[in-house]
Amino acid sequence: MQLKLLWELQEVDLAIKNLEKRIELAPAESGVDEAEGLVQELKKEYEERVSQNKEDRKVLKTLEMKTQKLVDDRKQLNENMYNGTVTNVKELEQMHRRMDHLLVEKEKTEDEILVIMESLEEQDDHLAGLNEELGRAEKDLKEKEERLRINLAEMNNELESLKAEKEIRAEKVEKKYMDKYLMLAEKNQGQALARVNEDLCGGCRVFISSGLRGHLYNPDAMVYCENCGRLLIKLDD
Ligand SMILES: [Zn+2]
């Protein structure tokens, strides 16, 4: 009877060990870190592009003001040329040249404006795309975090009930059996007991000598595998 209790205790202990391992690995396997990394990466790129966009809009504004100034200057110059106050031919020629120069400047500035406007349009499209991608990445992260949270909660619940079960089972085991169990479990990665199946040790698969076999029919006899040292148990089913 004691051996049977130990066997059941071992099953619970192994289940606890297995579950603890799964709990430990769950965060790394959940993909939360990777999803978080992607969100951070996309946020950084988005912010960089938004600040570039702001810079370009500032430049655009400056260019627009420059154009307006050139238009105003030309208008003023035009008035001065044709209101009859300037009669000196040389001076008038100079004003003509200035007029032409202002026009060239104005056209150049307008070209620059066009280039920057096109670039801003592309940037806006790209930003919209990035924003969508970021939204998806954030949603994915949230889902993964939620899944991990639920998963951990379930596993921890299960662990609690396994530990409670272990307590109940351990209480029924006599000290001398328990001491042996703990000692052997430590030596054999938790597998203190091995089940005998068709005269083989379930722990190391080595044949059990006929001398030992006879003792296996006593349910409380402590019989050890001659090869691996595990406590042997013969179960009915
Ligand atoms: Zn063995």
First-last Cα distance: 15 Å
**Rg to the nearest angstrom?**
42 Å
- Whole-number count of domains: 2
Report the structural category.
Answer: mainly alpha
CATH class of the largest domain reads Mainly Alpha
Total strands: the figure is 3
Strand count, sense and closure of the main sheet? 3 strands, mixed
Which strand-content bin applies to the residues? under 5%
> How does CATH name the architecture of the largest domain?
Orthogonal Bundle
CATH topology descriptor of the largest domain: Helix Hairpins
Written overview of the protein:
The two termini are 15 Å apart. The model has no long low-confidence stretch (mean pLDDT 95). With 237 residues, this protein is mainly alpha-helical. The protein folds into 2 domains: 31-171, Orthogonal Bundle (Helix Hairpins); 175-233, no CATH class. The radius of gyration is 42 Å and the shape is rod-shaped. A hairpin with a 2-residue loop joins strand 1 (193-197) and strand 2. Strands 2-1-3 form a 3-stranded mixed sheet. Helix 1 (2-29) runs antiparallel to helix 3 and helix 2 (32-82) runs antiparallel to helix 3. The chain has 5 helices and 3 strands, in the order ααααββαβ. The longest helix has 83 residues, at 89-171. The chain has helices at 2-29, 32-82, 89-171, 175-187, 210-213, and strands spanning 193-197, 200-201, 231-233. The site of zinc ion has 9 residues, from loops.
Structure in a nutshell:
By secondary structure, the chain is mainly alpha-helical.
